[in-house]
Amino acid sequence: MAGTPPIEASTTPPSALMRWLPGLATLRSYRRRDLRGDLVAGLAVTALLVPQGMAYAELAGLPAVTGLYTTVTALLAYAVFGPSRILVLGPDSALAPLILATILPLVGAGGDPAKAIALASAMAVIMGVICVVSGLAHLGVITELLSKPLRVGYLNGVAVVVVVSQLPKLFGFSVSAESTPARLKELVVGILDGRTNAAALAIGLACLALLFGFKVLAPKVPAVLIAVVGATVAVAAFGLVTHGVAVVGPVPKGFPAPALPVFDLGEIGRLTLAAFGMAFITLADTSALSRTFALKYGRKVDPDQEIVALGAANLAAGFFQGFPVSGSASRTAVAEAAGGKSQAVGVVGALAIILLLLFAGGLTTYLPQASLAAIVIVAGTSLFDLATMRWLWRVRRSELVLCLTALLGVAIVGVLQGIVIAIVLSLLAFLQRVWRPYDATLGRVRGRHGYHDVARHPEARQVPGMIIFRFDAPVFFANAEHFTRAVKKHVAERGEPVRHVIIAGEPITDIDTTGAESLRNLMDDLAADDVTLAFAELKGPVKDRLRSYGAFKEIGKKNFFSTIGHAITEYLEEAGGDPLEWVDDYDGPKKTPKG
Length: 595
Description:
The chain has helices at 16-20, 22-28, 35-59, 65-81, 96-107, 113-136, 148-171, 180-192, 198-217, 223-238, 268-296, 303-319, 329-337, 344-359, 369-383, 386-395, 397-413, 415-435, 480-492, 513-528, 540-549, 551-555, 564-575; strands spanning 89-90, 326-327, 439-443, 452-453, 466-471, 500-504, 532-536, 560-561. It has 595 residues and is mainly alpha-helical. The strands form 2 sheets. The protein has a 6-stranded mixed sheet. A two-stranded antiparallel ribbon has the order 1-2. Helix 16 packs antiparallel against helix 17 (397-413). The longest helix is centred in the middle third of the chain and has 29 residues, at 268-296.
């Protein structure tokens, strides 16, 4: 509730132990009246966690039971280390294709399940280490390298991969192709060849209708549980196993002992690359999800602690035959809607799953694969963000192109390579914006303060014999020559003799050595035409850079001004003009440049 007091509200500064183990603080301040809500929410979430965990495990190419191991360990670890009171972690539909893409080439189709589990667990451990180190070193900002259009494109591509990967199960047969286009082609050929199992398809379509229907008409109803139970009962009652309907079968009884995953060290490069990619995506999504729910309840969440907690959950999963995990918006929303107040929700869910593993593993004996495929397909479609793509079409189509490129990269090339494509595209988009940034000549608009872009304000008047030039980016190796060409172009197009060029330097956040060399050349070229180059409002750190390069002295201290007004005043008074016509709130002292 909004009135729930945040942990951070305590007047006693938290100890280092309490900061890194916020679950202990939650336990110390736990209110008995919250217990009922946490119990109900924990059981409600369990109804979602069990089928989803098993479905995402199979999507990752792993035995279904590993999804339960993963869910239990992630919930318990986050309950201890997680700063959010309500966030639910577990297997994720966006990560599962990445896991499959990484381990499938190493074990082969129909390969050793034990090796697949070891590889997936190793990825969880590596991802856990990456997250813990990132959190302790305050490196969570690296997730900002991926822009929103590229994140949307990547996840939309993953959605396509997820849906296509589950369609064969929905139709009741399997395909051997690995890439999404090849899998889709093999699916179509299989359907045309009559390989469809009618009973499996009927179950899958019924589950899809149920899941989509409840999602629209009654989103609070546990549709996943209803679909799974109904499908299981139908298979058992009508003996559909004898008609070729594939089922999960009973899960192994018990819970695995903790152990380090054993794998060939020659495979560590591929596993590490995948773990970095998953960490990159997961850190951004989980941090955003945690902040969203924290703000909703008026709390604060330490982003570094959130990353450490995510790492701890992945380490725990890796030690217990699990696979990489992430935060889940859907499961967190269920916990919240059911009245959950703390991470006791996760503890209740974990204990319920452990009881299932110990005493009721036979419940999955007749659970059809088609129903799990339907669950994954619904989850995959929820990943697809069409609204943002339509919005990008309206407001900035260049970013829609980036979004679509990332989508196609994932869907055609692969989810693992798609991460690299998305990051490279993001960096190229940034480089393009600073490589050819916006520049403008500034003038005065009657009745308005300051100096404004003449291209946007044709009525603006320019100071006679003077160019005021603005460059909206740092001046560095990629755009230094463009900077000098732009200045010369504005001087040439002025239409009257120019004697002074003032660089409005506030947007310039840095000048590298190449940029400084270009400034020297520009100064010499302008001086040959009896034109003075000066800077106004250049930031102190940038001037310090120029001093270290020796360029500050060459340009001359007298040619650096604190404001554009001071520069105009200096030059107009030298020429015998009246600066008051061009300067706001002239406050002197006259002829005193600010270096």
